[in-house]
Amino acid sequence: MAGEQDMTLEELEDGYSVAQDDSDVTRNAQELEAVFDIPVAVSAVLGKARLQVSQLLRVGRGAVIELDRKVGEAIDIYVNNRLVARGEVVVVEDRLGITMTEIIKGDRR
Predict the structure, then answer these.
(1) β-pairing, 5-8 with 42-45?
(2) pLDDT at position 29, please?
(3) Domain assignment present for 68
(4) I need a surface site. Which of 18, 26, 62, 100 has the fewest CB within 10 A?
């Protein structure tokens, strides 16, 4: 789509620090304080699969469903059903986590 651009975290951080000084950052944080407690839904999508209902009904415990992504490929990170970043799965102690590797600028889905 026209007008969309992928940015790395480094590019985002570099642009932010160049565009604003410390007083601007403090003022912007104070202006945003009212929305800090609003909950948002964050989803990490490893991949997708399309099945017919008959196939879905045959899926049982231990079944493997092939996804449309390859091992090592970036996963999509959505906030309130909007694609905002891509990342990688990491293990933190005994839990799974996500490392954002790319910020998506624009309205991509």
Answers:
(1) unpaired
(2) 75
(3) yes
(4) 62
Other C-beta atoms closer than 10 Å to the C-beta of 86 total 19
Residue length of the chain: 109
Q: Does residue 97 form part of some domain?
A: yes
Residue 9 counted as domain residue: yes
Sheet containing strand 42-45, strands side by side: 5-8, 95-105, 82-92, 75-79, 42-45
CA distance 97 to 50: 25
Mean predicted confidence (pLDDT) in 80-91:
94
Q: Considering its fold, how many domains does the chain have in total?
A: 1
Please indicate, yes or no, if residue 23 is contained in any of the structural domains.
Answer: no
> Nearest CA to 109 among 88, 78, 87, 74?
78
